[in-house]
């Protein structure tokens, strides 16, 4: 049976539910389709569960370090993974049910459960139902990529999704991929008490960041006993009589690492392969990401793509910003653009790495005259007092316009402190606005004006 709506939204990720809220408030009749877990990746298998588990791992780490703070401990610290998971699951469940009940109770919104598939540019099939609308919004997200590496079919492996249900501590976790997903789980599991080896095919961790950032991250992880195997080309997975082995063609080290579990953390792929996009004529790139313009319109009029599936961002805040762009442009006659967004993200190892705007490498490659300022976290009083003085911060400024081009903070509280730099960048203000600011003592942010007062030309 065909049902008519003003809009169909597919996927209850970080953009879809809020868009449903705005469209229904504006009087639109909306069909909402979700096939699995309301809240999508972030709430169920991404940010929320991982940061809950990072918090448990941090508690274990601080407990082990009690002596450093004068806290006496008589027993060795151990971690009860079942309790860690129960805590994580309770936090996730609250968020998931919150999203679902919000959508189900929304006036003018009808929720359909099942896999949505295009039948034509205006028609979506969900099981027996055919939904029709002039406006269709895709927020279908992505899933862990499983590359066709040799042996992948011969060994049981974990992904960022399945590891979240592991209620026992592996004796030795091998993490393949040394970036966002891989490093957060690597440090977390090391702190839970596992041996951990990270295998990365490039020559350094977080290979998209500057070299000094990669070195700083490496030092932090190695200081906790995490083993690293870099330059790992020609990886081969093997079943080693009950254990798992990774054959490596690295520049140094033993050609094989043997462990008890393998986590594949080598990127994500968009959920666009079973959407029937060709029935609507919606174009994708060669990796399956939906092609969009600066206002998130696809190649077909009346169809938009938001969040990870459009390849224009892979974070919760970028997906949510996609919702804001589409809603403001459609309902408020706005002219918001994806290109107005300043890239910003944080990698939640501990201490975290926050990055905004251009990296130093990108500034150098642009050839523009620039200034650079850096400060080690050992100069940040608050970090020293908290016993968390690993890492450093740096900032880059355009020597002519005096505007901030980018910054990185690898250190305690960096994920929060970066926002004073981000806000100055959004304000379009020169760096002197921030260097003359009086920030609270003792905070990590208080060193940012000091750093900006002693910039040197980028050699
Ligand atoms: C382990 C991990 C940790 C992360 N941590 C962070 C973090 O700390 N900070 C951060 O900013 N980002 C983080 N991310 C990234 C973040 O989770 C995503 O960028 C974010 O969830 C954006 O997702 P989305 O809105 O594009 O869609 P998703 O949240 O992926 O939602 C898509 C939804 O669409 C549904 N769907 C797909 N196809 C169909 C279909 N055909 N029919 C019906 N429904 C369909 C899916 O079931 C899903 O519910 C993390 C990711 C991972 C994997
Ligand atoms: N804190 C956060 O905001 C957060 C946390 C987790 C994930 N995420 C999002 O999810 C995305 C996916 O994360 P990810 O870490 O899976 O992917 P990624 O693309 O960020 O990193 C994958 C890493 O694996 C390496 N790699 C790729 N193929 C390999 C192979 N065959 N062997 C060895 N190494 C290989 C790459 O060189 C890279 O370092 C992130 O880019 C980010 O957008 C964000």
The third-level CATH topology of the largest domain is FAD/NAD(P)-binding domain
Radius of gyration: 24 Å
Distance between the termini: 68 Å
The first-level CATH class of the largest domain is given as Alpha Beta
How many domain units?
3
What would CATH call the architecture of the largest domain?
Answer: 3-Layer(bba) Sandwich
Q: In the CATH hierarchy, what is the superfamily of the largest domain?
A: FAD/NAD(P)-binding domain
Bulk shape: globular
- The neighbouring-strand order within the major sheet is 19-20-23-22-21-24
How helical, in percent, are the residues?
Answer: 25-40%
What oligomeric state best describes the polypeptide chains here? single chain
Low-confidence stretches: none
Attached small molecules: flavin-adenine dinucleotide, nicotinamide-adenine-dinucleotide
Q: What is the arithmetic mean of pLDDT?
A: 97
What is the total tally of β strands? 24
- Main sheet overview: 6 strands, antiparallel
Strand fraction band? 15-25%
């Amino acid at each position: 049976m065909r049902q008519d709506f003003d809009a169909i939204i597919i996927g209850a990720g970080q953009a879809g539910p809020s868009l449903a809220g705005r469209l229904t408030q504006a009087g639109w009749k909306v069909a909402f389709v979700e096939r699995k877990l309301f809240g999508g990746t972030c709430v169920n298998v991404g940010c929320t569960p991982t940061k809950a588990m990072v918090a448990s791992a941090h508690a274990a780490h601080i407990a082990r370090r009690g002596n450093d703070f004068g806290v006496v401990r008589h027993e060795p610290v151990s971690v009860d993974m079942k309790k860690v998971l129960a805590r994580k699951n309770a936090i996730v469940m609250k968020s998931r049910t919150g999203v679902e009940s919000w959508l189900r109770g929304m006036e003018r919104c009808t929720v359909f459960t099942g896999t949505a598939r295009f039948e034509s540019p205006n028609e979506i099939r969900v099981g027996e139902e055919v939904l029709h609308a002039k406006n269709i919004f895709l927020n279908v997200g992505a899933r862990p990529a499983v590359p066709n590496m040799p042996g992948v079919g011969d060994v049981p492996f974990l992904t960022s999704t399945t590891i979240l249900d592991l209620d026992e501590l592996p004796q030795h976790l091998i993490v393949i991929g040394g970036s966002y997903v891989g490093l957060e789980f690597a440090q977390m599991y090391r702190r839970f008490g596992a041996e951990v080896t990270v295998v990365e095919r490039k020559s350094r961790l977080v290979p998209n960041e500057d070299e000094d950032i990669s070195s700083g991250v490496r030092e932090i992880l190695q200081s906790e006993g995490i083993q690293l195997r870099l330059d790992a080309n020609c990886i081969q997975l093997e079943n080693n009589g009950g254990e798992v082995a990774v054959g490596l063609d690295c520049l140094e080290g033993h050609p094989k690492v043997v462990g008890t579990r393998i986590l594949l953390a080598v990127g994500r792929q968009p959920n666009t392969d079973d959407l029937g996009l060709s029935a609507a004529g919606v174009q994708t790139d060669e990796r399956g990401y939906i092609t969009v313009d600066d206002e998130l319109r696809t190649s077909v009029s009346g169809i938009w793509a938001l969040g990870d599936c459009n390849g224009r961002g892979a974070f919760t805040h970028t997906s949510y910003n996609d919702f804001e762009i589409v809603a403001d442009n459609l309902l408020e006659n706005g002219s918001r653009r994806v290109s107005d967004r300043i890239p910003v993200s944080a990698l939640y190892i501990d201490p975290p790495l926050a990055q905004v705007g251009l990296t130093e490498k990108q500034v150098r490659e642009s050839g523009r005259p620039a200034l650079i300022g850096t400060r080690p976290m050992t100069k940040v009083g608050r970090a020293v007092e908290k016993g968390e003085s690993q890492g450093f911060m740096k900032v880059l400024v355009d020597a002519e316009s005096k505007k901030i081009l980018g910054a990185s903070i690898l250190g305690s509280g960096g994920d929060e402190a970066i926002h004073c730099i981000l806000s100055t960048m959004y304000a379009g203000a020169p760096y002197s606005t921030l260097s003359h600011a009086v920030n609270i003592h003792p905070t990590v942010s208080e060193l940012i004006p000091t750093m900006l007062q002693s910039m040197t030309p980028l050699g």
